[in-house]
Write a structure and sequence with these properties.
The structure holds 3 protein chains of 3 kinds. By secondary structure, chain A is of the alpha+beta class. Chain A contains 11 helices and 18 strands. Chain A has a domain of 249 residues: 4-Layer Sandwich (Glutamine Phosphoribosylpyrophosphate, subunit 1, domain 1), CATH 3.60.20.10. In chain A, helix 6 packs across helix 7. In chain B, strand 8 and strand 9 form a beta hairpin. The chains are: A alpha+beta, B alpha/beta, C alpha/beta.
């Protein structure tokens, strides 16, 4: 049978996110509780978490989370890393064995910085250098898969229900100012660890609910610009589009959201002149990156989070605020379970990105 | 568009029977009771030919042809002209007429026993065709005494692996529904209401009725859900995957209106999607909410059209709580569909069965669900081949209508069916006597069942489950490597 | 009245007590509550999950907070009254009975609602409604009151797209944005307001103990299908 990466797999899902604008670090227990409420939206074939601010003692270093199928793959990868990076610390990621999570790969974590002379010779900035190195590992070392590689953040994912994945990774022992979670309902089995979500590139992570209908148009467009969609998932292509638009095209996240979830022309036509001009420009300029079909996504990045629905709002998404904390979820109940009385609770409109960032002076 | 030419020969006795039979206005009587032919209105439904007592009428393709062109056929040109005049979406009916889409059933041959194992004489030895459709749990449970507990969810029992496809009241007449329901009861199989609701007079056939819940939710209420042996959620159909429905207000009259619970004369529109299903987890939600409303007493079927990624779709359905997956292929019929959709969307059912069955097996969930297939099953050998590819049972729609008189003139969308099937006009619907119709359907299915038994017997198989997914029973001819690979069969002679 | 905690007693208690008045507390995302309920009164506390009161068939369901997606799906009869807001796809394919939401409704409220003879589905939204309100409307009445949104838009985009029967009443003088050319907008006269809107809104207001006059202040507009532009004109038979 063709596994994910060889064939495109449709999937439905649940998503949830918590962001502390004041930079307060909260335990992973809350996000676990939230995503567990939406058990029915997953089918046990994938769950995962992204967390920011969890490695304060190593916050200047790229944190690599890597899956290995074998010791051989680990040795080869470590030789590869040694040649390119200064490895400050390496260890197995601590897990709690549970019968609900089976067939785990070897899961390792490395804190690294590019070797200065190698970085200089490459003529790349350290982000691009690191991202290329991880793409090389994923493409060329059999049995090795880099799960995440940003600074002061990490992705924890597995095949299983999200609450079981949380227990497996002892997620309650981590403290972060920003959390996203994903429960997956793919239309295939056996499920694949690397195919679970969040998907990430550097410190950009995406969790996603829905199945986009523009997939192959988007994929072929983004692949023109040097990305390689290996997993054939919606989340992967959305991550690459966002990276391309923000990091390479230097659009703001808000503008990127207006490309991905561009309004209908008939809607643009009734906007005021300033909006109309900008939206028309973005639609014409980046028509290859219009994403259609149902999606709700949570995008995590260093210091912020974005929630976005497709322009028809074909998937549900609820947002809430309590003091400095912002919550997003596929279902209201998943917010109420951790914050019974929010100051405000609302459903963002389709195509209207909600972007939250750390307040000035927040210490992370 | 003129396509046929009507002629009569000298044996015509001027009885005007053809005038009375023609519902399309193609034959009328002149002042002197002579026949007047309106060739452009003829659909070649063969009603007049069948009823002419003298055998004097001939319908032929019009010999006036457009100049032959290697690229644009006469139909292409005629359709362009029609659309130039009307600005309309081309509307058609019955199954797809794709010019170059192969019928794979015709390229597969069946096996028979010779010497190494014995064939069986089905007339004298036991030969089982009963099929049970439904979910199966992953394992057994024992009570404290150590006895096995019956933990099987509700199943449908079919005496033969053939059932009647969903055709709605509105698209077809109540008399057709009556014939189907009564035949299903006599045969020990099931008929399917389609999405137009269930007429009250058919409530007694409850044990043999499958009710459909489609995006329009017409006539769907708690009584409807509970007056059935099973409930089918219709996501799509082979003739028009991804397209909603539109029953014109002209057909929403009398009991159709009452059964659909749509006011008379108002169009009945089925949205393209179910607006409460935008993702696979939403399907699970609808499946479970129907089970809640029916107290987990009935199997839930999810019907989809065979489209490109049908295998993972089927896998998703299997995991949604559904008990049975129904797949309708490219050649599936319809009462009305945009022609371009009908002829260009979807994939042939044979390929869909093969890939779905294979995928479900690779995922080890084939035994968890049952699979019903439809879309161009013309005879018993098509049914046997479908089962050997991996289906549990087949559904027939077009073939059932043919048993009732249909000649596939593909004019259902006009609402003037001369055979009284796809129409609501009382003078036409009365042309079908439901009792006689039931008899015809019973004969057809019994004949096919006998043939299926003959074929099984020839292969030395005496129970239909031993045929399911038994692809060694099939060999291909005139197929390329890729086709053989997808069908999972070997070439003849291999 | 019997009071149950859904976390301890499960959802089955609702079925067992369906002829009485019961309260179910502690809801947090549990689906299908009150599904197909034929009689009795059910009070729901907390945040119930999706498909609340689906196929509701005569029973009465009160919710003291918000409801999530697909509430009152394919509802047939009875009353659902929500003291908070509703998620997306509220009252999809509803066939009869009444759905009252005091707060806002999400996207696609009242899609393909119907009416037939004495069965007339009625949806009242106290606050504002999201885009695609009453899409494919096939009958029945939708009223959006816009309480607390005075002088603001009370519907989103594509209001009433594809509707072919029934009426959407909006308590505003602003025409919905990008209204389809297959729809007509008209101002509601006093007679229609008194005859049709008042009785419904009075019942609505009484369920939430708010003064009915507040819900009737100012003018209403009505959105209906333009019967001269039927879908049949789209096709050419071959």
């Amino acid at each position: 049978m063709k596994r994910e990466g060889e064939v495109r797999i449709s999937s439905g899902c649940a998503i949830s996110g918590i962001f502390c604008k004041d930079g307060k670090r909260i335990s992973g227990e809350a996000i676990r509780k939230s995503i567990a409420v939406m058990h029915n939206r997953s089918n046990g074939l994938g769950g995962g978490f992204a967390a920011y601010g969890i490695y304060p003692q190593y916050k200047e270093y790229f944190a690599l989370h890597i899956f290995y199928d074998s010791q051989l793959a680990r040795e080869e990868t470590e030789r590869f890393l040694d040649k390119r990076f200064d490895i400050i610390n390496l260890s197995k990621i601590p897990v709690r064995q549970t019968p609900k999570i089976a067939d785990a790969p070897l899961i390792w974590r490395y804190f690294v910085l590019p070797l200065p002379h190698m970085l200089q010779d490459s003529q790349l900035d350290e982000d691009e250098y690191t991202s290329r190195a991880t793409i090389m590992i994923n493409d060329s070392i059999t049995g090795a898969y880099v799960v995440s590689c940003g600074k002061d953040m990490g992705v924890f994912k597995a095949v299983g229900y999200p609450e079981d994945v949380a227990d497996f990774y002892r997620i309650e022992e981590y403290e972060g100012y920003s959390w996203t979670a994903h429960g997956r309902y793919p239309t295939n089995t056996p499920g694949w660890w690397a195919g679970s979500h969040p998907f990430s590139l550097l410190d950009l992570t995406v969790v996603h609910n829905g199945e986009i209908s523009s997939y192959d148009a988007n994929r072929r467009a983004v692949e023109m610009y040097g990305y390689s969609c290996n997993l054939l998932t919606d989340t992967e292509v959305i991550t690459y589009i966002l990276d391309y638009l923000t990091r390479k095209q230097r659009l703001t996240l808000k503008e990127s959201s207006e490309v991905i979830a561009a309004p209908f022309w008939s809607t643009i036509a009734i906007k005021d002149e300033e909006d109309r001009k900008r939206l028309s420009y973005l639609r014409k300029m980046y028509s290859s990156f219009l994403v259609t079909g149902p999606f709700s996504i949570l995008v995590g990045f260093r210091g912020g989070m974005m929630a976005l629905n497709d322009r028809l709002k074909l998937r549900s998404l609820v947002a809430a605020e309590k003091g400095s904390t912002v919550y997003f979820s596929s279902e209201e109940a998943a917010i109420r379970v951790i914050e019974e009385n929010p100051d405000r609770i609302w459903a963002p409109q389709g195509g209207d990105a909600v972007i939250v960032t750390l307040e000035k002076g927040a210490d992370v | 568009m003129r396509r046929y030419r009507i002629r009569k020969d000298e044996s015509c006795v001027s009885c005007l029977r053809c005038v009375r039979e023609c519902s399309f206005g193609a034959i009328t009587a002149g002042d002197d009771k002579s026949l007047v032919f309106h060739h452009e209105k003829c659909t070649d439904c063969q009603r007049c030919v069948s009823f002419c007592p003298a055998g004097a009428i001939y319908i032929t393709e019009d010999e006036n042809r457009f100049r032959r062109n290697a690229v644009f056929s006469e139909d292409d040109i005629k359709e362009i002209r029609l659309q130039a005049e009307t600005g309309g979406v081309l509307l058609s009916s019955m199954g797809a007429s794709g010019r170059n889409v192969p019928i794979y059933f015709d390229k597969m041959l069946l096996n028979a026993s010779q010497v190494t194992n014995p064939s069986i004489d089905p007339l004298r030895e036991p030969m089982e065709t009963a099929v049970f459709l439904g979910q199966r749990p992953e394992g057994i449970e024992r009570n404290q005494m150590g006895d096995i507990e019956d933990n099987l969810p509700p199943h449908l029992e079919l005496k033969t692996p053939i059932m009647f496809s969903a055709m709605s009241y509105g698209a077809i007449s109540l008399n057709v529904h009556k014939a189907l329901a009564s035949a299903a009861e006599k045969l020990g199989i099931y008929w399917n209401t389609g999405e137009g609701g269930l007429h009250e007079s058919l409530y007694p056939y409850k044990e043999h009725t499958i009710v459909q819940v489609a995006s329009g939710r017409f006539g769907v209420h708690e009584t409807y859900l509970n007056t059935a042996a099973a409930i089918e959620i219709k996501i799509g159909q082979g003739a028009k995957p991804g397209i909603g429905g539109h029953l014109t207000g002209k057909k929403i009259i009398g009991d159709v209106s009452k059964t659909r619970m749509v006011p008379e004369g108002l169009d009945a529109i089925s949205p393209a999607p179910h607006h409460d299903i935008y993702s696979i987890e939403d399907l699970a939600q609808l499946v479970m909410s129907i089970k809640e409303a029916t107290h987990y007493e009935k199997p839930v079927i999810v019907k989809v059209a065979a489209v490109h990624n049908i295998a993972p779709i089927a896998s998703g359905i299997a995991r949604s709580g559904a008990d049975i997956i129904s797949i309708d292929g490219y050649r599936g019929g319809t009462g009305a569909a945009p022609k371009r959709i009908r002829d260009n969307v979807g994939i042939p059912i044979e390929l869909a069965i093969a890939s779905v069955d294979q995928r479900l097996r690779e995922e080890r969930i084939r035994d968890r669900v049952s699979v019903i297939v439809s879309g161009g099953i013309r005879n018993s050998s098509d049914a046997v081949k479908a089962i050997a590819l991996g289906a549990d049972a087949v559904s027939i729609g077009t073939a059932a209508l043919c048993a009732l008189g249909c000649h596939i003139c593909a004019s259902c969308h006009t609402g003037r069916c001369a055979w009284g099937l796809a129409t609501q006009i009382p003078e036409l619907t009365k042309r079908l006597d439901p009792e006689k119709g039931a008899e015809l359907l019973v004969n057809l299915v019994n004949a096919w069942t006998r043939e299926i038994k003959e074929i099984m017997g020839g292969m030395g198989i005496n129970s239909i489950e031993a045929l399911r997914g038994n692809r060694m029973a099939l060999r291909g001819v005139d197929l390329n490597e890729k086709e053989l690979e997808i069908l999972g069969i070997r070439y003849a002679g291999e | 009245m019997n009071i149950f905690d859904i976390r301890k007693d499960g959802r089955d208690v609702i079925r067992r007590f369906d002829s009485n008045e019961i309260t179910i507390t502690g809801c947090l995302g549990e689906r299908y509550i009150g599904c197909g309920m034929k009689k009795g009164v059910l009070h729901v506390k907390g945040t119930p999950g999706n498909a609340l009161a689906a196929y509701l068939d005569g029973g009465t369901v009160y919710v003291d907070g918000n409801v999530q997606d697909a509430a009152a799906d394919t509802m047939n009869a009875g009353l659902l009254a929500v003291n908070g807001s509703a998620g997306d796809a509220l009252a999809y394919g509803m066939r009869g009975g009444r759905v009252y939401v005091l707060g806002d409704a999400g996207y696609r409220a009242g899609v393909h609602m119907k009416a037939y003879e004495d069965k007339k589905s009625i949806l009242v939204i106290g606050g504002r409604a999201g885009s695609f309100l009453g899409e494919y409307l096939a009958g029945g009445i939708i009223i959006v009151l816009g309480l607390g949104y005075e002088d603001k838009r009370i519907t989103g985009y594509f209001c009433g797209n594809g509707m072919y029967a029934g009426t959407i009443y909006l308590r505003t003088d602003k025409e919905p944005l990008n209204l389809s050319d297959k729809l007509i907008k008209r101002t509601v006269g006093d007679d229609e307001r008194e005859r049709i809107i008042r009785p419904i809104v009075t019942d609505f207001a009484s369920r939430f103990s708010i003064p009915p006059e507040r819900c009737l202040e100012g003018g209403f507009i009505a959105i209906e299908a333009d019967k001269s532009k039927s879908y049949s004109q789209l096709y050419a038979a071959v």
